[in-house]
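Ticket #4471: structure output looks truncated?

Reporter: J.K.
Steps to reproduce: submitted the chain below (124 residues) through the standard prediction queue, then opened the result file.
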Amino acid sequence: MKKKTLFATMVACFFAMNMVAQNHACISIKVTNIPTKTGKVLLLTDKGQQAMAEAKENETIIEMGKLPIGTYQFNVIHDANSNWKLDMDENHIPTESCASVKVDIKEETQLIMIELQDLKKNKK
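Returned output as attached by the reporter:
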């Protein structure tokens, strides 16, 4: 009887671990339209995840690793002066390229494309 109970417990644990593992997706973010190769590209989600990559001219890849399945707001900035914040002018318009994108993470590996925007240039 003890062997059957132990076996049943082990089987239940195995399935529970597989269920937890399947509730995550491996995420990479390709950030494009980076104006210069100076500074860093910072990514923050509305759920508190953070990632960073060195800026490269035009595009870079940020590896987020495994994220729980769900909907996220990704906020990305090209922190050209590496001060770890989005710089703004006197009218509160960002002076660094940035983007904010809502993304549904599914149960698979995903490459998410995010294009940075120069809001100061677009405002003119």
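Triage note (M.O.): checked the attachment and the full token line is present. The first helix runs from residue 2 to 21.
Status: closed, working as intended.
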